[in-house]
Amino acid sequence: MSETIILESARLRLAPVAMTDASDIQRLFPDPEVTRYLSNIPSPYPDNGAVSYIGQRITGRASTPSLFLAIRCRTRHEFLGTIEIRHDPLGMAGNIGYWLGRPHWGRGIMTEAVHVVLGHVFSALCIRLVHLSADARNTASRRIALGAGFLPVLERRTGIWKDGAPFVRIHHLLADPDARPISLPGHGLALRPLSLDDRRHLNGLYTDPMTRRFMPVIPPVADGDIGSNILAFAALAGSESRRYDFAVRHPKAGFIGHVFASREAGGETWTIAYALDRKSRGRGHGTEAARTLVAFLFEAAGAQEIRALVVPENTASLRIVKSLGFSKVGMHRFVPGGPELSAFETIDCRLERPENA
What we know:
By secondary structure, the chain is α+β, with helices and mostly antiparallel strands. Helices cover 28% and strands 32% of the residues. The chain has 2 domains: 169 residues, Gcn5-related N-acetyltransferase (GNAT) (Aminopeptidase, 3-Layer(aba) Sandwich), CATH 3.40.630; 171 residues, Gcn5-related N-acetyltransferase (GNAT) (Aminopeptidase), CATH 3.40.630. β11 and β12 form a beta hairpin. α1 packs across α3. The two termini are 27 Å apart.
């Protein structure tokens, strides 16, 4: 799709980056001020860096769809920088990044480019949630994000930066207010992609001791803002087609739960999980939400197998997966990635793709 897209604004023309842009990128990128906050750009910049940079982005489109656009002056056609948004093919989430040559700073160019691209991805690609990560010291990029409507939801130290300073990233999110729900049969529920409005509800859901008892995979958070962590990870992983997150919404009660699916690395097996608030349990809502998530994964995401890892004491969840046709294949010792979580035993339940799906 990105090969044919051309976007224009009052001053700018955005078109797919091509190898013919390598000389312009090579001219601007060796400036250490340009690459100062770009974590994946080597410093000093190698002589063939631009060709490699473009090649990696073009090759990456095969696994993760993206718009990788050159920003040019609309009248003089001068190359100014690039803007990129990677997204999953179903439009659930996207991740945006950008850079601008130093001679063009301070003129509102990137602000204009970001507005144009966001308008396109919300209207044409129907992306629901966009993630932007910026170095905490990069005040210019953060101003652009805030001006475009992004909200900072999470600040995390992730290591040491190139210059030896602490590497602190601020994660920002922007949701499409017109995101379309996925209809649920039966109880009038709807699965809706997570939005910023769900942050408070996620905090309430995952601080409930009963929920945490049966979902030990959800890590504790020092500042207590579990919702922001879930939203930031959902958007970033979703933009790479590794995860789908939905709020379960009732026509009268509103938010009543959260369902999500994570794709196993390099495969077509997806692992699902779900949680409902206390007042909504025992009414069949969990079964309906899980059934619709399963159908979505088979029909839209191309899953060949779906997995549910259930804590043995969670008899209600075991009943749900059994009613959906899952089979127990054994026990699985789940080892979480974070040091703050302990390994725990689960029942490994699997459901293969139906022949008529």
